[in-house]
Amino acid sequence: MTKSPSTIGSLSQGIKIIDVVAQSDVPVKFTELQQKTGISKSNLYKYLNTLTQLDLLYRDRQGSYSLGYKLLEYGNAAMRNHDITSKLSPYFKEISNITQMSTSLSIWLNDCPVITNIWNTNYGINIGAQIGTKLPLLSAAGKVFAAYSKNEEVAQWIKLEQERIPNFSEEQFHKELQEIRSSHVAFAKEPLVNHVSSFGVPILNYKNEIIAAVAVIGFTENIPNDPKVEMIQKVIDICKEMSRIYGYHE
Fold first, then answer.
1. In this predicted model, what pLDDT tens digit does every residue of 191-210 receive, in sequence order?
2. Is there a contact between 248 and 222 (Cβ–Cβ < 8 Å)?
3. Could you tell me whether strands 112-119 and 186-188 are parallel, antiparallel, or unpaired per DSSP bridges?
4. CB 157 within 8 A of CB 142
5. Mind listing the pLDDT tens digit for each residue in 110-133?
6. Contact of 146 with 175, CB cutoff 8 Å
7. How far apart are CA 40 and CA 28, in angstroms?
8. Which long-range contacts (CB under 8 A, 24 or more apart) does 181-187 make?
């Protein structure tokens, strides 16, 4: 663990112990904790006694350690504050201001990506969607979910969507998904209505799993198609900043 003059080493060590316990599917023994943390026996005893007294860890009769109930309380509190819209709203407004285009937020709901919020900068544009719209595979947000989701439900959705698309090239699509994962951005040319295109960027969590997709939507001539364009890089940086709220790290 890298030391920094602006951090408290002992607190970092305590969190390190909790991390080892959290990553184990079974209670962790003292010897294993010492091996994985590299903390001396005398100091590790002190850390464990402190964490146990604070109910951050629980010590069973065999002397092994698991997460304490206090962490469950913290987890429940975090879930209560897991409202993506209210927590991230300032970031979406910043994206709209930077791009001067509409911005949408989509989450996976039941069996497909669904738009939950839209921030309109250009009120005169018909983006072809509204809150509650189910997005197709070849939309920018749809491609983002296809690129970053790993569960079977999403795989089934992709399969069903492919069957509806004439002359669909699975090989070409998988190549595009690889490019999306590499560049962190997906492009869609007029997926819903004529003359309106978009690009999409993921919001990821600490497991590198997708939480939501952000799409910037505008007239086709105003949507860049190069990931290196400054505007797109700014949006990617903002989305990475949002992702870090959920523990994402590169």
1. 888 889 999 999 999 888 99
2. no
3. unpaired
4. no
5. 788 998 888 876 666 777 788 888
6. no
7. 17
8. 181/147, 181/148, 183/227, 184/227, 184/236, 184/239, 184/240, 185/227, 185/232, 185/235, 185/236, 186/140, 186/141, 186/143, 186/144, 186/147, 187/140, 187/143, 187/223, 187/225
Straight-line distance from the first to the last Cα atom of the chain, in angstroms, rounded to the nearest whole number: 16
Tokens 């109930």, residue located: 69
What are the tokens at 46? 């002190």
Quote the tokens at residue 36.
Answer: 């994985």
Q: For 172-200, b where at least 16 C-beta lie within 10 A, e where not — what string?
A: ebeebbeebeebbbbbbeebbeeebbbbb
Give the separation between CA 89 and CA 74, rounded to whole angstroms.
Answer: 23
If you count them, how many residues does the chain have? 250
Contact between 210 and 202 (Cβ < 8 Å): yes
Looking at the whole model, is its pTM more than 0.90? no
Name which of 176, 191, 189 is nearest 224 in CA terms: 189
What would the two tokens of residue 138 be? 């070849």
